[in-house]
Amino acid sequence: MSYAYLFKYIIIGDTGVGKSCLLLQFTDKRFQPVHDLTIGVEFGARMITIDNKPIKLQIWDTAGQESFRSITRSYYRGAAGALLVYDITRRAVSYEEGEQFAKEHGLVFMEASAKTAQNVEEAFIKTAGTIYKKIQDGVFDVSNEVADYIPEDAIAADLAAPAVEKVFDAG
What we know:
alpha/beta; about 170 residues
């Protein structure tokens, strides 16, 4: 299936907070209660539609363990969007604190559950909508993007620019 844009996302957060479960719920619409720890990075993709344009979300699920931080940081470069994930059942951060942090930094804030699928779609779709709007408003200039394809349709993005690729129709 062809697409108008490709957005690279990263999912970041501590180990065991549900990053891989969130990815699996969004890409496969299923919850896996027991999941092996991510080693380095895992990858998923899904097509969505915004403003009648097909958009491919390419999602990189990073390892949360401290021992992989130097590896996973290299995947942050070129990301058009990031989902910062933490486990609300541990309540190390209150709803109000999370909401305030997001507000202070101009971020979208919402609580989601990979287990029940509550707000999972919305988290990805809403952030993609924000990225798309920034493209339409000229904040992200996709006309000068440089991208090389690597195996499994993954994208190695220009390190200075977000990984948003405009796909031009030759026909």
